[in-house]
Amino acid sequence: DQQVKQNSPSLSVQEGRISILNCDYTNSMFDYFLWYKKYPAEGPTFLISISSIKDKNEDGRFTVFLNKSAKHLSLHIVPSQPGDSAVYFCAATRNRDDKIIFGKGTRLHILP
Amino acid sequence: NAGVTQTPKFQVLKTGQSMTLQCAQDMNHEYMSWYRQDPGMGLRLIHYSVGAGITDQGEVPNGYNVSRSTTEDFPLRLLSAAPSQTSVYFCASSYSFTRLDQPQHFGDGTRLSIL
After folding, report:
1. How far is the CA of A66 from the CAs of A2, A70, B15, B82, B115, in angstroms?
2. Angle CA(B78)–CA(A96)–CA(B51) in degrees, nearest 5?
3. What is the distance in angstroms between the CA of the first residue and the CA of the last residue of chain B?
4. If you average pLDDT over residues B96-108, what whole number do you get?
């Protein structure tokens, strides 16, 4: 039973355009969400997070939007750059819970 | 500037062998965890620890043991390796599971093949 779903295994975007990565969750108790980025042969690195008390969080080119009623979040990257080509994992947890649940990941290809 | 260190980086085992994957962090983090990454499956939590002497099971604990005798180290033991345990294993640590603003730091992984 997958609690965090990333339904697009891969996504290709032209350099300079907007990349939008989507994530859905089923557990309404989740109240904190994170995005991690992973390059080949490296461990995941934290990118951006959002608490359920917010609906948007920005950090430079990266913005995460949260729609609690739809149990959906998305990561926007504007403008997309070649170095953004990586696998992106969505993750979720409950406040003071001790487990972080990851989605299957979306591989983003930035095309020249 | 070590962060989370995993050893070995690569390992090949025969079915039935046992081995220990090492994980060490130098950030005085309370929370440590082990994940496995398989194609199409994302990162799945195997075991985790919220502090020295405390461990608990994650999503896929069968076939693995852990212990946390020190804050720094969190080894993962494969008791009797099986081909289904062929995977890339990641160790992660964070300040505390109650501090969600302090995200997890991951090691670079151990690529394990079971023949």
Report:
1. 19, 9, 45, 40, 44
2. 45
3. 35
4. 79
Measure the CA–CA gap between A20 and B110, rounded to whole angstroms: 30
Q: Identify which of A96, A98, A103 has the shortest CB distance to residue B42.
A: A103
- How many residues does the structure list for chain B? 115
A2-33 burial, b at 16+ Cβ within 10 Å, e below that, comes to ebbbbeeeeeebeeeeebbbbbbbeeeebbbb
Kindly report the average pLDDT of chain B as a whole number: 92
Closest by Cβ to B97, choosing from A51, A89, A98: A98
pLDDT at position B40: 80
Query: How far, rounded to the nearest angstrom, does the alpha carbon of residue B14 sit from its chain's CA centroid?
Result: 20
Q: Which of A39, A90, A104, A106 is the mutation pick for testing B, counting most B CBs within 10 A?
A: A104
> B100 to chain A: which residues are within 8 Å by CB?
32, 49, 51, 93, 95
Cβ proximity of B88 and B35 under 8 Å: no
* Closest Cβ opposite residue B107 in set A43, A100, A104: A43
Measured between CA atoms, the residue of chain A closest to residue B30 is A98
On whether any CB of chain A is under 8 Å from the CB of B11, the answer is no
- CA distances A19 to A13, A41, A107, A108, B94, Å, are 6, 23, 11, 8, 29
Supply A43's token pair: 């461990």
Percent over 90 (pLDDT), chain B = 83
